[in-house]
Amino acid sequence: MENLQSTITLNNGVRMPLVGLGVYKAEDGEEVVDAVKTALESGYRSIDTAAFYFNEEGVGKAIAESGISRDEIFLTTKVWNDDHGYDKTLAAFEESRRKLGVETIDLYLIHWPVTGKFKETWRALEKLYHEGKVRAIGVSNFLVHHLEDLLEEAEVVPAVNQIEYHPWLTQPELHEYCKDKGIQLEAWSPLTRGRKFDDPRLMKLAEKYGKTPAQILLRWDLQNGVVTIPKSVTPSRIKQNTELFDFELTGEELAVLNNCNEGLRFGPHPDTFV
């Protein structure tokens, strides 16, 4: 964890940056293009989008115009709920690839575990992986029981599980299960949508280290071995979120934040979201 280009090795040997830019709710066109370009200029080498974000074209445009070699950028996108199923997933992938303007996608995820459908969807992801169209495949918002169900028939173990993760939702059982199976955890909404920035425990650490609450939360992710993808379209915040490598939380401070856990979700619950 030396700098923004630091990576972690996934279970198939692919290296993934520890920090990336999330572009959920970034409007397609100028807004997302500018955000991605700012991130790449600031040293980010991982961009996370999804079909459901409706901004893949802008992300692809920014990458193409950045002047940075494609093989230096780790690009993630996801298949949406309406496109579950073997054939529909393959078609959705081709549409995402067309919009992004790339030959290969680095990480392709199932966005949500749609009951009764995600196994067929996973079969399609395995096909794409075996054909070399994606470098790694994974899931998002899968709980332990979803993963257990998937692994009963999967040929390929997911490389990543992207979940809502922050000190108020640490999901320790899921975290341990993923560690045991070699599945890398990745945090979405790592900044709690800003709703916990005034927590006294967080503010105390921010004051001690001369950092923002956001920077403390992102550093906590990294020290817990979790890849993090904060989202922002504000240039100053995109750059601020890179300044994570000149301080280190102590074991005691990590424990203080771990003990904030109260099962608090700011997004949907995977068992009830359709």
From TrEMBL:
TM stretches of this protein: none
GO MF terms, alphabetically ordered: oxidoreductase activity, acting on the CH-OH group of donors, NAD or NADP as acceptor
Residues that bind substrate: 111
Protein's name according to its UniProt entry: Aldo/keto reductase
Residue ranges constituting the NADP-dependent oxidoreductase domain according to the UniProt record: 26-261
Family stated for the protein in its record: Belongs to the aldo/keto reductase family.
Sorted UniProt keywords: NADP, Oxidoreductase
Pfam families on file: Aldo_ket_red (PF00248)
Organism annotation: Salipaludibacillus aurantiacus
InterPro entries, per the entry: AKR (IPR020471), AKR5G (IPR044500), Aldo/ket_reductase_CS (IPR018170), NAD(P)_OxRdtase_dom_sf (IPR036812), NADP_OxRdtase_dom (IPR023210)
Site location (Lowers pKa of active site Tyr): 78
